[in-house]
Amino acid sequence: MERTISSMEIFKGVLLHVLKDEVELENGVRSTREFVLHPGAVAVVPITEDGKVVLVEQYRYPIKQKLLEIPAGKFDKPGEDPLECAKRELEEETGYSAREYIYLGYIHTTPGFSNEVIHLYLARGLKKGQMSPDEDEILKVHLEDFREVLKKCISGEITDAKTLAGIFRAYFYLNRSEE
């Protein structure tokens, strides 16, 4: 364990809240920890009746490229229910709603510098509706065969961490009876 000696706010923006803490390590050495506080998020693996995954393609400014990802989004308010956030984000980003949501656990995305937690869901029994992305989101919806998406995750064509985790957890959930 590391004991916090002092904490100072470095930056507070719309999405990010950065702190700089002075800590004492368990060996008695003092060190500095800079980290991002994140409100939390969800990511959804939506699978159609015929085995297609609903993905979104979007430009990610920090890495200056488009990525193929599962739909996802951050909590709008502290304490928001992850399932309600998952339902909202799936519909906003893809236009789909789901009859069934299965919780696949959560991941720590970058614990070296952020406390972000993303809750993962598998969504089935999809019904197509109308997309309503945020005004700063330009999204293109893709429907791809689950096995092809899995291959893209394994080959490195898909590099987004939440997508990798979601697809692999969905794969193992869907194939658990074969073990």
From TrEMBL:
Source organism (scientific name): Fervidobacterium thailandense
Entry-linked Pfam families: NUDIX (PF00293)
GO molecular function: hydrolase activity
Keywords: Hydrolase
GO biological-process terms attached to the record: nucleoside phosphate metabolic process; ribose phosphate metabolic process
Descriptive protein name: ADP-ribose pyrophosphatase
Domain Nudix hydrolase intervals: 36-166
InterPro entries assigned to the protein according to its UniProt record, in alphabetical order: NUDIX_hydrolase-like_dom_sf, NUDIX_hydrolase_dom
Tagged with keyword Oxidoreductase: no
An example Gene Ontology CC term for this record: cytosol
Superkingdom of origin: Bacteria
Cofactor(s) listed: Mg(2+)
